[in-house]
Amino acid sequence: MTYTTQIKDEITKINDNSSEELTSLCVYLRFNSTIADDKLTIFTENASVARWIFRCLKSHYNININLTIRTIKRFKKKNIYILEVKERLEFIQSDINNIMNNTLESSIEEKIAFLKGMFLSCGSINDPKKNQYHLEFLIKDKVDAELVNKILLSLDFNSKVIKREREYMVYIKSSENISDFINYLGAVNALFYFEDIRIYKDHKNMVNRLNNCEQANVEKSMKTSKMVVENIKYLEDNDLINLLDDRTKVIIEYKKKYPETSLNELANIVSVETDKPITKSGINHHIRKINELVRRHQSKY
User: Fold this and answer.
1) How far is Cα 152 from Cα 150, in angstroms, rounded to an integer?
2) Which of 53, 33, 44, 30 lies closest to 143 in space, CA to CA?
3) Which domains does the chain carry?
4) Which residues pair with 136 in a beta bridge?
5) CA–CA separation, 301 vs 297, rounded Å?
6) pLDDT tens, residue by residue, 214-228
7) Is the pLDDT of residue 177 over 80?
8) Helices assigned H by DSSP within 17-154
């Protein structure tokens, strides 16, 4: 079972109030049914969605519904659920038109019900275990895609629309937005799963960033240590050590003895072995003297 199927199974078991349920049903029918030869036909591969449609049609229109199940065995065995309605089509179409024309001015609850119907008909969400967070609706008509995008934006979702080959995709990439969307749908179990994975991935990314920073600091420290050792050798080769004060000469001796130590490590060693406390800042002060003397001497030649 895919993550999208898990969400759809969960939200079709929720009992919404009559008005919101009718909105979700009509939106689903608008985007995932056909009316031809005085017959409304719906195809779906999801058994839970098929049961939900059947129940909603019965509840709101009290009509006869013909349900057919076809099994397709090509490549992978799957069932196709076909629902056919021949009664009260004018009332159903009128409700669909009314909801599509007035959703932007409706309440937050009705907008959420609209998005529930959209998600059941043409929406999907990537499993959060995958590399990218992604929620999308695939819609054939540009005007419909823009309407869905406006509804999402009105609920503070950072959604966008792009043109595909034969359709339009309304999508959301923000993990927080997707989490909020699942919460709006009322898919509690799917939300807990999403948040568990998101927390794990965020923690893993934070650890990786800390490791990268630590590695960068180590490399920077090694580079700085190498430069200091090279500058000390330059001073020795050019007989310049005696131009420095005695305390700096002591730091030079310890740096030669422990060339790969960091400033903090060198400060601890010098403090213990000389019994004269010095801080990391103090070590850095003497190293600046060494570097400055090298710089001045090199600038003359």
Assistant:
1) 5
2) 30
3) 3-186 (3.10.28.10), 203-299 (no CATH)
4) 124, 171
5) 7
6) 777 777 777 877 888
7) yes
8) 18-32, 47-61, 89-102, 108-122, 142-154
